[in-house]
Every structure is written in structure tokens, then in C-alpha cells.
Design goal:
Number of strands: 7
Low-confidence stretches: 227-237
CATH superfamily of one domain: GTP cyclohydrolase II
Strand order of the largest sheet: 1-2-3-5-4-6-7
Shape: globular
CATH class of one domain: Alpha Beta
Largest sheet: 7 strands, mixed
CATH topology of one domain: Rossmann fold
Strand content: 15-25%
Mean pLDDT: 80
Distance between the termini: 51 Å
Order of helices and strands: HEEEEHHEHHHEHEHH
Length: 271
Amino acid sequence: MSGTHLPISELLAENRFHDCAGLGDDHVCVRIVSIADLPTRFGDFHIVAFANNRDGKEHAALVRGDVTNAADVPVRLHSECLTGDALGSLRCDCRDQLETALHMLGQMERGILLYMRQEGRGIGFLNKIRAYALQDYGYDTVDANLALGFRDDEREYSVAAHMLMSLKVRSVQLLTNNPRKINALTALGVPVTDRIPLIIPPNPYNRFYLETKAQRSGHLLDPQGKERLPEQDETPIVAGMTSAQIAEVAEAQQAAAAEAQQAVDAAGGMA
């Protein structure tokens, strides 16, 4: 294991009968059930098993070193992806992100990877495969979710925030390209002191998926596998443009959105 160790007995004793008012709209309460050593190809970790009172799902934390009462702890929130993490799918970048994060954390004195049971950005495995089928007809990942009646991202981070609190983490540096994760943790009372980019070069099968995440979901990346800066997402309006030119930009954006919806409708007829 790394130079410092979790106070396992203390954490287990505190969580044995833990029951609190919970976090978020659903008042999610989680508790630590068990902790064990987990040597991996990326380094030595503790694996912490959590139960929660919301949906019965069992989440995990891979913990490097002693993170209790520590500030600025590097943390990766990773949502479960069976097709990517376990089966090596090239349609997403999930496995690459998981392994890159574990490699980074394995070289650090302390850090955490939360493995969240939120398959398919929260829509579940069956619906993720339905979304894949729609993408085979030309939908992007956002329009596929919308066509199935979901938001583009159904994930919720109350469980993740409570897990970090259960581990007594004071503040985190988040390994992410997704500003929504930063905003969600902050709103739930977990201070995020910095963002560590996690940039994965695209392959021919996931390039369109990564482009969609950047252009439509606000992820801070670009299709070339480089970090995307927040100012790159601003509306393309510059000083000197006339009101007519600004209106033309807005009209073009609306037309693009309408064209995307037409593609969704047409694909729905073929499905």
C-alpha cells in the first residue's frame, strides 16, 4: 500500500449504524459497509464498499493513501460503463478515462476514484443499448437520449458527495472535463478547489461522440484530444457585429437544432 493508510476500524465503527437526513432532493444517505486492500495493475488501493438508502445500488471507492481530514484530494467520479469498462467498446472513452485516472492516482500519495453505478449517464444499461441503436441511425448521443424521453444526462451526485463526506474529505481536486460535476458537488457542500483535465485522444468510433459532448453537453475538450477552455463555448458574437448579423447567428443555431430534431424524428420512423 501507499505510505499512509485509511483508519479502517474507525470508519467502519462510525458507519455501522449510520443514518442521517441525507443529501439532495431525495435525502440520500450512504454508509460504509466494508473496506479491503485492493492491489491493482495501477497501484495499491483500499476498496471501500458503500450502501445507500435510495435505490439499493452498491457503489465503490478506490482510495489511495489516507484521505481522511485531507484537503485538495484528487478525485475522479467515474460512472459505470459495462460496454466500455469491461468489454472494451470503442464507442465511448470510458475505459480510457477509467484507466488513465487510476494510473494517475496510483502515482500519488493520496486520491480517490468513486465508481458510481450510473450506467449510460443514468438511464441504465437497457436504455443505453436502445440509445446506441438510435445512434446507428445517425442520432448523436444527446438526441438519442431525448428521443427515449430522457434528459441528455440523468446522473445525480448526492451519493458521490455523501461518499466523500463519509471518507471525511475536506475538499477535492476533480479529475474531469465536465463542469456539471463541479457544480453538482459544490452545490451539495463538497468544496472543489481545482480541476484536473482528463483528456483522451479520440478514435474513429468515438470522435462524433466526443464532439457531441463538447458542443452540446459543455465538456471541456475538443475532438483533437486537447483541453477545451470554458471561453471556447461562448456564443460566436464579436464586437462590431450588427444586430442583423447577431440575429443571423441565432437563426443559424435554431436551424441547426431544428435539423437535428428532424433527423431524430426520421430515425424514429425507421427504428
